[in-house]
Amino acid sequence: MNKNDILAGLKEIITPYTEEKTALEHITEDTDFITDLKINSANLVDIVLDIEEKFDIAIDNDSMAKMLNVKATLEIIAQKQAENAG
Amino acid sequence: MLGNDVVDLKLAKIQSNWQRKNYLSKVFLPAEQQFIRDSNQPDCVVWLMWSMKESVYKIVNRNTGHRSFNPLAFQCSFNLFAAHAIGSVNYSGETFSTYSDITQASIHTLGYQSPASFENCKIIQTENHAGYASNFDKMYPALSLQKDKSGLPEIYIESTRSTHIASVSHHGRFLDLAYLL
């Protein structure tokens, strides 16, 4: 899966948890879940669980701690997928 | 230092399903999950501990400038009464005190770190609106809600011309502001 596919999957996951539709439409690596997309922190847990299900990976606690923006999240998904493949 | 967090229980019910598989284990330590299972009001205990963790996260974040999403690093214990809870949260070896107000509609937690004490923290709960800062200033003309150089909230008290560290939390119908006297 390349980065664009992962980003498209992530965007789909995030959609129900944000009302900032313009920011979501223009999502980039620099988009922040809290400050830009105004996602409620309780829903960050849902996003992490959705990512685990969709990408078939397990996200440990230290990784979850970093998942406040798109860039860190894409990196973690790619890294966990690589670990699975290896 | 202080930090606060409010949960609109009506909105939380719609927004979040903590009964979802694996949800609790991402947020709560085994002992905390046991508190939830043992309680006859699990919803209340979930959002009580959530707001305790958030309020203390805000203190740590403000002290260090470091952001993270690591609810398991905050360990809650509390005594739950009819309409309030008195608790403590351990983070990285340091213990923070919390006081939570509990109603049918909301749970609000104030977290504070020594030398701040409950007595020198003031809490104001109002309705949450878009543009709440200007609305707040209209409702409380003696106070002015502003931001410091780093964009963090502070309260300016007109009568004493003094500036006070503040924490703002809004969720659903509620806006809660806490500041240090």
Structure description:
The complex is a heterodimer of chains A (86) and B (181). With 86 residues, chain A is mainly alpha-helical. The mean pLDDT of chain A is 96. Chain A has a single domain (3-85), classed as Non-ribosomal Peptide Synthetase Peptidyl Carrier Protein, Chain A (Orthogonal Bundle), CATH 1.10.1200.10. In chain A, helix 1 (3-14) packs across helix 3 (41-55) and helix 1 crosses helix 5 (70-85). The two termini of chain A are 15 Å apart. In chain A, 63% of the residues lie in helices and 0% in strands. Chain B has 181 residues and is of the alpha+beta class. Chain B has a single domain (2-180), classed as 4'-phosphopantetheinyl transferase domain (Ribosomal Protein L22, Chain A), CATH 3.90.470. In chain B, the strands form two sheets. In chain B, strands 1-5-4-3-2 form a five-stranded antiparallel β-sheet. In chain B, strands 6-10-9-8-7 form a five-stranded antiparallel β-sheet. Classes of the chains: A mainly alpha (86), B alpha+beta (181). Chain A binds chain B through residues 40-46, 48-49, 52, 61-62, 64-68, and chain B through 12, 15-17, 20-23, 26-27, 50, 54, 67-70, 72-73, 171.
